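Notes for week 9. Today we move from apo structures to complexes. The key idea is that a small molecule is not decoration. When we ask for a structure prediction with NAP present, the ligand SMILES becomes part of the input, just like the chain. The input block below holds both the sequence and the ligand string. Read it once before you look at the output, and try to guess where the molecule might sit.
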Amino acid sequence: MKTALVTGASSGIGYEMSRVLSHLGYELILVARREDRLLELQKVLETHSEIVLCDLSKEDECKELYKKVKEKDISVLINNAGFGLCGNFTETDLDKELSMINVNIKAVHILTKLFLKDFVKKDDGYILNVASSAGLMAGGPLMATYYATKAYVVDLTRAVNTELADMGSNVYVGALCPGPVDTEFSEVADVKFEMKGISKKYCAKYALYNMFENRKMIIVPSAEMKLSVCASRLMPTRPLLEITKLIQKKKQS
Ligand SMILES: NC(=O)c1ccc[n+]([C@@H]2O[C@H](COP(=O)([O-])OP(=O)(O)OC[C@H]3O[C@@H](n4cnc5c(N)ncnc54)[C@H](OP(=O)(O)O)[C@@H]3O)[C@@H](O)[C@H]2O)c1
């Protein structure tokens, strides 16, 4: 039986990805901090699943997670857990930002490295890092740390994907880069999206289809967002930063 591990499975995109993977026949390892949510998810899954409670902001818990599950012959890793924070960089809370860096960057880095080594040995496996279209922009004034964490995830993913191609490896590493998605993200980050978000169900299905079927390195799941990303590439950095700042300003509740 094939097994997939999903971080941040207790809500939003991770919850829906777990449902899609289960429908595709994968057994699941569900990772997050809120056990009640994971127990609810377990009830609606079509395949066997296990819960591992883990605070991914803690390096030792990330390493412990890998040790706990490494014998389970996992073939799909979805590094999805993450959160954002809005505000002027001089005013945002340092501890929250360090925790964000730990979850959005360090945990993704640790788990990608540890699982990738196993996947490369067996020349099989998929790693999908949930970044954001924020990671494809020039920077994110008023959400500076969040944008920077997602740029790290995009850059790391692109580089590792290229190394794997160079090795002739069958292992897939890609990044999901959505724009707004209807989840609890905005509540946690304390923002209001201007743009209407896509549904988490659509986002999860689109991401997994493009991972399994098209093996796309960067997955952007909406035409509107694809257009924004293309336009941003044609624009000089300073005006692009100004536009991003205006968008973020409107988001602040
Ligand atoms: N929604 C959007 O508009 C959007 C757009 C682009 C990218 N993304 C990215 O998509 C990913 C999923 O976010 P979402 O939109 O689905 O938001 P969400 O509904 O708030 O879900 C976030 C998930 O991350 C988990 N998580 C957060 N901190 C954690 C920690 N310290 N340890 C373990 N798990 C932790 C949460 O689980 P617990 O709280 O139970 O631990 C939850 O399951 C994130 O990486 C986010 O940056 C979201």
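The chain has one domain: 3-251.
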